[in-house]
Amino acid sequence: MIHVRVKRTDGHITGINVKGHSGSAPKGEDIVCAGVSALVQTLYFSLQKLLQLELEAKIREGYFDMRIPQNLPESLQEKTALLAEATLVGLAAMAKSYPEYLQVHDE
Fold it and tell me: Using an 8 Å Cβ cutoff, are 87 and 95 in contact?
């Protein structure tokens, strides 16, 4: 099972932690793992490339942990929030479709 934990501070997403493997199919054929990886890595690279954010992240097989800086200028915070919330929409939809393989915890 993949567990996604979303950390919030004052309503803003300040971190995303992903642990585990879904086990829904053999390695290389697992659409749940592939979907989760694609969503969280797209967020990570988008924040870096499009918004030029310096991010603290740890990425390895079966593990992703990213911290989003706090105290960003308001316009940058709005863009960051939109990208992060859009990622959560995708993760929540996947969790609804595959509840036995993916859980999203919004803390």
Answer: no
